[in-house]
Amino acid sequence: MNINATLWIQWIPFAILAWVTAQFIWPVIAKALDERAAKIADGLAAADRAKSELASANKAVEAQLAQTRTESTKLLGDAEKRAAAIVEEAKKRAEDEAAKILAQAKADADQQVARAREALREQVAVLAVKGAEAILHKEVNAGVHAELLTRLKQEL
């Protein structure tokens, strides 16, 4: 057999194989490659969208955190003011109560002093009467009277 004829005979199945591949196999492979490229492109686009959404979500979270910090600072300030007001109100009530208690104690002390004075007056009157009786029962003598007056002073 001639080498040229062999080449032509081998070339025919190669051409048929190339034509079959180009007609039936290559479009399927190209389609699969295109679908794979489209999936990759979609995945990259989704990743970019997710990245931008993450950045916007981070910004929103930071803004919310800043707002929360501001609100919590404001609430803490309000609570401190309210606590100070409560403390001042309690101090005022305590001072008012102390003043009432002091006034009541002073009134009680004044009443006790008045009662003590009245009791003392009664005792002095009784002693004066006793002294007068003792002086009148005995004879009038300056030494005896002085002694009775001294005893009266000691009893007072």
TrEMBL record:
Cell location: Cell membrane; Endomembrane system
InterPro entries: ATP_synth_B-like_membr_sf, ATP_synth_b/b'su_bac/chlpt, ATP_synth_F0_bsu_bac, ATP_synthase_B_chain
Record keywords, A-Z: ATP synthesis, Cell membrane, CF(0), Coiled coil, Hydrogen ion transport, Ion transport, Membrane, Transmembrane, Transmembrane helix, Transport
Coiled coil: 47-122
Topology term for the membrane: Single-pass membrane protein
Any one GO CC term of the record: plasma membrane
Main localization (coarse): membrane
GO molecular function terms listed in the Swiss-Prot or TrEMBL record: proton-transporting ATP synthase activity, rotational mechanism; proton-transporting ATPase activity, rotational mechanism
Transmembrane feature ranges: 6-29
NCBIfam families hit by this protein: ATP_synt_b (TIGR01144), PRK05759.1-2 (NF004411)
Complex and partners: F-type ATPases have 2 components, F(1) - the catalytic core - and F(0) - the membrane proton channel. F(1) has five subunits: alpha(3), beta(3), gamma(1), delta(1), epsilon(1). F(0) has four main subunits: a(1), b(2) and c(10-14). The alpha and beta chains form an alternating ring which encloses part of the gamma chain. F(1) is attached to F(0) by a central stalk formed by the gamma and epsilon chains, while a peripheral stalk is formed by the delta and b chains. F-type ATPases have 2 components, F(1) - the catalytic core - and F(0) - the membrane proton channel. F(1) has five subunits: alpha(3), beta(3), gamma(1), delta(1), epsilon(1). F(0) has three main subunits: a(1), b(2) and c(10-14). The alpha and beta chains form an alternating ring which encloses part of the gamma chain. F(1) is attached to F(0) by a central stalk formed by the gamma and epsilon chains, while a peripheral stalk is formed by the delta and b chains.
Similarity comment: Belongs to the ATPase B chain family.
Biological function: Component of the F(0) channel, it forms part of the peripheral stalk, linking F(1) to F(0). The b'-subunit is a diverged and duplicated form of b found in plants and photosynthetic bacteria.
Name of the protein described by the UniProt record: ATP synthase subunit b
Organism: Roseateles puraquae
Lineage: Bacteria, Pseudomonadati, Pseudomonadota, Betaproteobacteria, Burkholderiales
